[in-house]
Amino acid sequence: MANMRKYFEVVIFTSTPGYLSQPVLEAFDPNYYAPYRLYREHTTLENGERVKDLSILNRDLSKVIIIDTLASNYRLQPENGITIQKWHGEAGDNELNRMETFLEEFSFLLAISQADDVRPFLKTLRDMDGNIPNAWDMYKQKLRKLTSEKDQTMPLVSAEDSSPKPAQNTIISFVGSLIGLNKPLTSTAAAVQTQPSFNLVDMIERLAKEERVLLVKQLEDEKKHIAEMQKLQEEMIKKQTEENKANKLTMFDAMMGAGQPQITGQPPLHEPK
């Protein structure tokens, strides 16, 4: 969840009532990496069944992806959906990790290709394999093979020649045709094209890996900072408690402000007896 927030606006949408889901989500996501949470109360009744209507998100649906264990839950917008296998408690289950890898790398592909719509690309993957992480691996193999074949026929150019390589143009066009690219390339994509021995798949995997390493360090730093703040707070509470005991203050006295520093010129709030 912490990783996905770097690439997407994360929303939790569950079919379970809020009064049951909220305690679970508080434990699952105490830092609110998913700031928006929708429950059964937000679902839509369709032919006697509850469905998740993505239009209530008030977001551009061309940029929305829903991941669910049941395709019927998002049947109003099936082109936006990814079905993931339900977890049954298996210790070796790694579907979420594989989905995370796909979403990381997919976000870089979208950025490079400047796609207007995620839905054509999702359809391409679904047509390859119903399991999106599997389809993504297959797609990368095809793209890597295409890149390698084009690299072998790519003419050498001097360092001063910054014109786009025909082979690389073909690769970008191939990707763009799958994900609805219909505008000029971004500066990132243009820069990528001018790199020698360009390999889109390798670059995407490298960028995702580097971002993951940075995230781990960031989370470790955040955890360390939180621990330090908690320790400081505990020390302050301990010190205040000891001072209250020394002054023979009760809990009620402390709540009423006795023993607290007084503003100059003001009488004490409470005189201990």
Automatic annotation (TrEMBL):
The entry's localization annotation reads: Mitochondrion inner membrane
Check the record and name the InterPro entries matching this protein: FCP1_dom, HAD-like_sf, HAD_sf, TIM50
Q: How does it sit in the membrane?
A: Single-pass membrane protein
One of the record's GO cellular component terms: TIM23 mitochondrial import inner membrane translocase complex
Keywords attached to this entry? Coiled coil, Mitochondrion, Protein transport, Transit peptide, Translocation, Transport
- Name where it mostly resides: mitochondrion
Q: Which Gene3D superfamilies match?
A: HAD superfamily/HAD-like
Q: Which residues form the FCP1 homology domain?
A: 1-106
What Pfam families does this protein's entry cite?
A: NIF
Coiled-coil intervals, chain numbering: 215-249
Its GO biological process terms? protein transport
Q: Describe the subunit structure.
A: Component of the TIM23 complex.
The cross-references to PANTHER family, in alphabetical order and at most eight, read: DULLARD PROTEIN PHOSPHATASE
Role according to the record = Essential component of the TIM23 complex, a complex that mediates the translocation of transit peptide-containing proteins across the mitochondrial inner membrane.
Q: Which family does it belong to?
A: Belongs to the TIM50 family.
Name under which the protein is recorded: Mitochondrial import inner membrane translocase subunit TIM50
The uppermost taxa in this organism's lineage are:
Eukaryota, Fungi, Fungi incertae sedis, Chytridiomycota, Chytridiomycota incertae sedis
